[in-house]
Amino acid sequence: MIVCSCNVITEHDVRSVIEMESPHGTAEVYICLGCSARCGRCARTIKRIMAEAIKGCSVDCTCGGCR
User: Fold this and answer.
1) Are 9 and 33 within 8 A, CB to CB?
2) What gap in Å lies between CA 47 and CA 15, rounded to an integer?
3) CA atoms of 25 and 61, how far apart (whole Å)
């Protein structure tokens, strides 16, 4: 699914960044993907994806998203 039409960012792209880079906010997701927010409509969706990823973390998680 396309999350950001301006930068052509997919949900898979966002989840990959969360897993590998452990960003703490949407701005860090954009930076990790080598772009920046344009219209900002995707920020809410990126925040939701980040919340889902953190919710799915276990006690022994190594993704860094639970810090």
Assistant:
1) yes
2) 11
3) 19
Residues 57-65: contacts with CB within 8 Å, 24+ apart? 63/18, 63/19, 63/22, 64/22, 65/18, 65/19, 65/22
Helix (H, G, I), strand (E, B) or coil at 9: strand
pLDDT digits (tens, 9 = 90+) for 17-62: 999 998 999 999 999 999 999 999 999 999 999 999 888 766 566 5
Where in the chain are the domains? 2-55
pLDDT > 60? residue 64: no
Q: Where are the beta strands (DSSP E) in 1-67?
A: 2-4, 9-10
Q: How many angstroms separate the CA atoms of 23 and 34, rounded?
A: 13
